[in-house]
Each structure stands twice: as structure tokens, then as C-alpha cells.
Write a structure and sequence with these properties.
Number of strands: 0
Radius of gyration: 16 Å
Subcellular location: Membrane
Membrane topology: Multi-pass membrane protein
Structural class: mainly alpha
Low-confidence stretches: none
Family: Belongs to the GDT1 family.
Number of helices: 9
Shape: globular
Keywords: Membrane, Transmembrane, Transmembrane helix
Strand content: under 5%
Protein name: GDT1 family protein
């Protein structure tokens, strides 16, 4: 449980207002089959976070706990640093002909590959020693954060103050990162 809940919370916070969520709004509007889009996103999230967890497990084998804790804190601060900036629009999905499930899984996997959520998942996996719980928690957080965007499509951005949520999430991620950095440096 040391990895599951933190990974879930970080992924949930990091996804709000992110490019992937913007993509999900477009996918929801394009296909109008929420179950297939959500299933595709969930599969892509599981695969991406499994990669992050596996990399974290590999890192943990070579790097001691304190530097991993420092890396996790820096990762959280970096994840938070993008919060005040405008999000670049994702690629268009209007011409994709693979169907709702495969288009959603493919587009989401590609866009989320190597992003901040995957990086932080790897760091949490390395620090906790539970890579698969970190991956599962992060995949669940990503999926939960994106379900409303699928269901509401572009209305999601009109209903929810995504910029304010991004900034609040950024502040929370930065604070958590600062605490971890201070602990790793034995200042706190």
C-alpha cells in the first residue's frame, strides 16, 4: 500500500488539465462510445504505467533509497512546474479509422509515453520497492481522472476550471516534492 495510494494520487493530480485529458475530450466527442474509449485509455494507462513501474524496479536495484527519494521529490517538483503554463493541443484524431477502442488506446499510449506521470510512477516504484502496486495505482489514477472528460467531451473544459485545478494540483505536487527533497537531504 506504500506505493498504491501515493501513485494513485499523483497520477490523478497530474492528469487534470493535461494534454492527455484534452485528447480524451476529443476522443469522447469523436467516437461517442464512452465504454470503448475508457477501455482503450485504461489499457494504454496500464501499459504505460507498467513500463514506468518496471523502469523504477530496475533503478531500485542500482540506486540506494535516499537518492531515489531525492529523485522522486525532484520528479514531483518537475511535474508541478508545468501547471501554470498553457497546454499544447494534442494531435487530431478526426481522421483515425481504427475504431473507438484502438484509436483511444493507441493515441493515449503514444501521447502518455514518457510523460511526467510515467516518470513519477517509476520514481515511486523505485522508492517503494512495490513497482506493480505503483503501476496499478497510477493506472487507476490516470483512468479515474479521464473518465469525466470522456463522458462530457469538450463540455468538460467548460464545466470544470481546469486551469485553476492544474495550478492547485501543481502546488500540491510541488509541496510533496519539496518535503521529499528535504527528507532525502536530511533537512526535515
Amino acid at each position: 500500500m506504500d506505493a498504491l495510494v501515493p501513485a494513485f494520487m499523483v497520477a490523478l493530480l497530474a492528469e487534470f488539465g493535461d494534454r492527455t485529458q484534452w485528447l480524451v475530450m476529443l476522443l469522447g466527442d469523436r467516437f461517442r462510445t464512452p465504454a470503448a474509449v475508457i477501455a482503450g485509455i485504461a489499457l494504454a494507462a496500464v501499459l504505460n504505467m507498467a513500463i514506468g513501474g518496471a523502469v523504477g524496479m530496475e533503478i531500485a536495484a542500482y540506486i540506494p533509497h535516499r537518492p531515489v527519494q531525492l529523485m522522486t521529490g525532484v520528479g514531483l517538483i518537475l511535474a508541478a512546474s508545468g501547471a501554470p503554463f498553457r497546454v499544447k493541443p494534442p494531435p487530431t484524431v478526426a481522421t483515425w479509422k481504427l475504431g473507438a477502442f484502438f484509436s483511444s488506446a493507441g493515441a493515449f499510449f503514444i501521447l502518455a509515453l514518457g510523460d511526467k506521470t510515467q516518470f513519477v510512477t517509476g520514481a515511486i516504484a523505485a522508492g517503494s520497492g512495490s513497482p506493480w502496486l505503483a503501476a496499478a495505482g497510477a493506472a487507476a489514477g490516470v483512468t479515474v481522472a479521464n473518465v469525466p472528460a470522456v463522458l462530457l467531451g469538450e463540455r468538460w473544459s467548460q464545466i470544470v476550471p481546469l486551469r485553476a485545478i492544474r495550478i492547485a494540483a501543481g502546488v500540491l505536487l510541488a509541496l510533496a516534492g519539496i518535503v521529499l527533497v528535504l527528507k532525502a537531504l536530511e533537512i526535515a
